[in-house]
Design the sequence.
């Protein structure tokens, strides 16, 4: 029954398998037919692999170099000043930790809502979350003025529990642990399967190394009902826990901004705003990761257009919610007319920050909705284009959230006579250091994914097996 | 006739950035509003966390002067409670205070620990407003630091431990007075200093950390006035001591602090922010306040 679902996949795999392998596959009822596809990234080294790794590594190394320059010359070289004390790294921190939410959504939410169509997507989604989150966390380092003292954050005698930043650190660290567990648990049965499969099919040194790894992860997995029950229970529990955890991470992250008296930061909407933004950009990143993996490892048989369209609708829902929150925030602050608030809303809509804001509005506000609304553009290409724009535009939107309030003069004449456009607004100037560091972090994500999929099956084979039956009914 | 001080307050309340009138209270805590720490404590109590006394104590933060601390430990009465009075009536905007401060602490040009803002009054005339650190009694910059690098001394000085600051700059975000300045590049080379490098005398500044006006804390015990107070030729800046109820400026005037503030309608800057600053402003330059002040 099961091989009907991914029938096309089995046929793809045929020419690649040795005749012996085919016999084993059909004989072994427990071995899913798409094992070959799932293991292909592990065993084969396509021509593009090394060049890609080389280029991406070079960008990452350039980023590390840029950071070294920043450490030597001081944070001032990155365009900061007392009139723009927070800017690009803070936006990066929020944006990169934000995009790691995709894994939590696609995996946990779809798991909890029992959306069986998620099956072929979960591994890629979870791996994307797993690699993005540490990259995002690393932005703490360039963000700090004295990064060599970062150990103080893990030194309890220095802790100040009333600081939002400390809680950010706790929340993100916990979330990282949860993401790792969430990646690890579904991997156990897959590792057991992959180990057996490798034993039957591969004798290369790579295969042997991987076998060792799989023994470590899934060596004791027998697939007995008790084990299955335990594992499913554990995955379910983590799936439930990871959602409030994800919500709390971004809420606390927003408190670092919101727990001040600064106009534009003191916003009760911020926790929700940050969570929705993270979910939105996170789903968009998953879409991009899926499209890339599908193209690179020819997974068209598993990752189908319908997946993109469904994720496109999920993205649309978050995008619309985010647009709505932006609207309410700006409307209320602008309408209030208080000098501090009206000034930054003014600057964003028609003042010095109008370009990034309206870029967000078009690229991540209107465009994705249009793409999903028009049947003709509701295609893989359409959704992926929208997703790419969303990821970029949501990063820009984070700049719009972080920079204007940090550059607003808050000691004004009591009469505010300088006017909304007047006053000594600070300016943040991009320099090559933060640009390089941001690009390096961006490059680190595909680089780490390329490496991760050299070691773990790209498809969650066991889960696909399990969900194949109801999937039949759905289709 | 409307009191001009009230006007200032109303204008300020509309703009959010106010020089609110406050009856001089000798710097004592206001009881009307919920301070930040009290708020956290209340919230914690509401959540039933108050039982976790240890955690609650932590939430109170490292700054002194909290009500909890005064409840549990019999407070040692400090001999001084430092304050400042800034008589705007006489400030001509010469910025010698800024220059003196920068020279004394080897600061970069843009590190204006005392900054002279040019403001505009109702008549459209400009006046000058020096702004040092307000030495807030409930300083928003203190509780936000993740590594407790900000603290408040029992003499009411808010200081930064630059050997601990990791440079998150969240305190710069919290300060409603733009009083904090980061060391974005390496500090200037310094000559031999009369005091060791410590929070009371952070000279030289430390790259990658936050600095701000310290009321020249290291100079105060020996009876020296802060550099800016000494440098002001107009006698605008007064160092005050709430404990002794006295204030002294750099041209030899000594006043009874509470009376001086009360008689001249002294106000605190952005008092509505709940920071309870210890810097008092006497408004008036270009505002013709004196006639109305007589009415009080
Ligand atoms: S004025 Fe600013 S830096 Fe000074 S104590 Fe108040 S909040 Fe802190
Ligand atoms: S009191 Fe000292 S540190 Fe503060 S502004 Fe005056 S000179 Fe500068």
Sequence:
């Amino acid at each position: 029954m099961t091989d009907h679902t991914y029938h096309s996949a089995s046929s793809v795999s045929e020419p690649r398998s040795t005749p012996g392998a085919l016999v084993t596959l059909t004989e072994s009822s427990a071995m899913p037919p798409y094992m070959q596809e799932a293991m292909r990234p592990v065993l084969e080294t396509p021509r593009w692999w090394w060049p890609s790794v080389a280029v991406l590594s070079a960008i990452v190394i350039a980023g590390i170099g840029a950071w070294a320059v920043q450490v030597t010359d001081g944070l001032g070289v990155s365009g900061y000043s007392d009139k723009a004390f927070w800017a690009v790294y803070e936006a990066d921190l929020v944006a990169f930790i934000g995009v790691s939410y995709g894994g939590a959504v696609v995996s946990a939410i779809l798991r909890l809502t029992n959306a069986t169509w998620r099956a072929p997507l979960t591994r890629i989604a979870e791996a994307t979350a797993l690699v993005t989150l540490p990259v995002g966390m690393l932005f703490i380092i360039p963000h700090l003025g004295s990064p060599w003292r970062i150990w103080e954050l893990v030194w309890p005698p220095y802790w100040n529990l009333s600081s939002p930043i400390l809680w950010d650190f706790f929340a993100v660290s916990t979330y990282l642990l949860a993401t790792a567990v969430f990646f690890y648990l579904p991997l156990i049965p897959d590792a057991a399967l992959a180990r057996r499969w490798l034993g039957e099919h591969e004798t290369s040194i790579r295969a042997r190394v991987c076998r060792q790894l799989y023994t470590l992860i899934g060596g004791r997995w027998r697939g007995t009902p008790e084990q299955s029950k335990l594992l499913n229970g554990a995955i379910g529990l983590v799936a439930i826990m990871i959602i409030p955890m994800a919500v709390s991470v971004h809420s606390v992250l927003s408190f670092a901004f919101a727990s001040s008296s600064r106009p534009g930061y003191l916003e009760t909407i911020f926790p929700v705003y940050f969570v929705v933004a993270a979910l939105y950009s996170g789903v968009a990143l998953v879409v991009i990761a899926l499209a890339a993996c599908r193209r690179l490892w020819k997974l068209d048989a598993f990752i189908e257009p319908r997946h993109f369209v469904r994720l496109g609708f999920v993205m649309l829902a978050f995008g619309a919610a985010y647009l709505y929150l932006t609207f309410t925030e700006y409307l209320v602050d602008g309408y209030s007319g208080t000098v501090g608030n009206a000034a930054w809303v003014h600057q964003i809509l028609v003042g010095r920050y109008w370009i990034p804001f309206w870029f967000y509005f078009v690229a991540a506000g209107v465009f994705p909705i249009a793409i999903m609304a028009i049947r003709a553009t509701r295609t893989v290409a359409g959704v992926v284009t929208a997703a790419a724009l969303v990821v970029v535009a949501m990063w820009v939107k984070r700049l719009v959230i972080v920079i204007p309030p940090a550059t607003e003069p808050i000691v004004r004449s009591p009469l505010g006579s300088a006017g909304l456009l007047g006053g000594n607004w600070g300016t943040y100037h991009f320099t090559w250091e933060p640009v390089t560091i941001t690009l390096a972090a961006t490059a680190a994500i595909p680089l780490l994914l390329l490496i991760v999929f050299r070691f773990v099956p790209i498809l969650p084979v066991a889960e696909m097996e399990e969900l194949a039956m109801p999937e039949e009914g759905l289709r | 006739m409307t009191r001009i001080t009230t006007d200032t307050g109303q204008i300020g309340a509309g703009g959010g950035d106010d020089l609110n009138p406050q009856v001089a209270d000798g710097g004592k805590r206001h009881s009307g509003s919920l301070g930040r720490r009290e708020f956290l404590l209340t919230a914690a109590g509401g959540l039933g966390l108050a039982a976790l006394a240890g955690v609650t104590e932590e939430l109170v933060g490292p700054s002194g002067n909290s009500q909890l601390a005064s409840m549990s430990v019999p407070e040692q009465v400090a001999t001084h409670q430092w304050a400042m009075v800034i008589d705007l009536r006489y400030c001509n905007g010469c910025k010698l205070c800024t220059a003196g401060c920068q020279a004394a602490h080897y600061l970069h040009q843009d590190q204006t620990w005392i900054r002279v803002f040019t403001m505009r009054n109702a008549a459209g005339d400009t006046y000058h407003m020096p702004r040092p650190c307000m030495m807030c009694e409930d300083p928003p910059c203190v509780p936000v630091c993740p590594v407790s690098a900000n603290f408040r001394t029992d003499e009411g000085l808010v200081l930064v431990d630059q050997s601990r600051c990791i440079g998150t700059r969240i305190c710069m975000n919290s300060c409603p007075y733009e009083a904090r300045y980061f060391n974005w590049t390496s500090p200037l080379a310094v000559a031999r200093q009369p005091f060791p490098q410590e929070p009371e005398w952070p000279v030289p500044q430390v790259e990658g950390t936050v600095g701000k006006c310290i009321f020249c804390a290291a100079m105060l015990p020996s009876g020296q006035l802060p550099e800016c107070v000494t440098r002001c030729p107009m006698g605008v800046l007064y160092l005050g001591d709430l404990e002794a109820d006295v204030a002294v400026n750099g041209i030899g005037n000594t006043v009874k602090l509470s009376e001086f503030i009360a008689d001249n309608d002294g106000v605190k800057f952005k008092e509505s922010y709940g920071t309870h600053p210890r810097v008092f402003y006497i408004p008036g330059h270009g505002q013709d306040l004196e006639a109305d002040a007589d009415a009080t």
